[in-house]
Amino acid sequence: MRSALCQVKHRIDFFEKFAPYYDIFFDLLTIKRYAGFQKKAVKILTPEKGEKLLDLCSGTGRVASWMAQAVGSDGEVVGMDISKNMVEWSRKRYGGINKGEFLFQDVTKPWGYQDYFDGIFTSFAIHELPEKKRLAVFEHSYLALKEKGRMVIADFNPKVSGNSNTISLVFFKLFERENLNFFSFDQNEVLKKVGFKRIKAFPVLGGIFQITLAHRSAD
Ligand SMILES: C[S@@+](CC[C@H](N)C(=O)[O-])C[C@H]1O[C@@H](n2cnc3c(N)ncnc32)[C@H](O)[C@@H]1O
Question: What is the distance in A from the centroid of ligand 1 to the CA of 58?
Fold first, then answer.
């Protein structure tokens, strides 16, 4: 059995190789539903002109570019990713859209932002993170948000049930064996433990996917 560190490296290597084809591949595979899901999640984030937003594990930078359009030239969108090729690709394609930038950053390590962002977005990334580091990532997010800030997490639903559970498990066993531990992850509990409030989940496609909105403050 491969060690946890080795499994993580294997996943990152995959993103390194796949960066230029990632969006095209998933758009074709899902008949553009991948992008549709991401757009729905951005809508739930409700980006506004002039806001400072972060796309955590920003991949190709496409979602960050949509958020950059929404916040306009007075706003700022920062993307962070651990894959050098993803960061280079996003800089090449979307760099200089507004005041934002794409950073090479392992999000499980402290990022140095405090009370800075109005909103944090992340899609299809939390399930990729090492099991023991997910809480730390939510802690860094909580710290990096302004008092009235919010976070949107778009991903598989770890608590999926019924037939949808079978579909998710088969998919993970085939393509994401390293991340099967995600199904024992109690995301809401961890968000609450970190201090997030007003947590609301929006199920998508029979509950296989989920978009979660969480706020830093109670009101
Ligand atoms: C499945 S892709 C999703 C990319 C993008 N958010 C999207 O929705 O298309 C997961 C991304 O998370 C990044 N990633 C994985 N572990 C990371 C870490 N510890 N720190 C930063 N990025 C990470 C990968 O490099 C990859 O780009």
Answer: 6
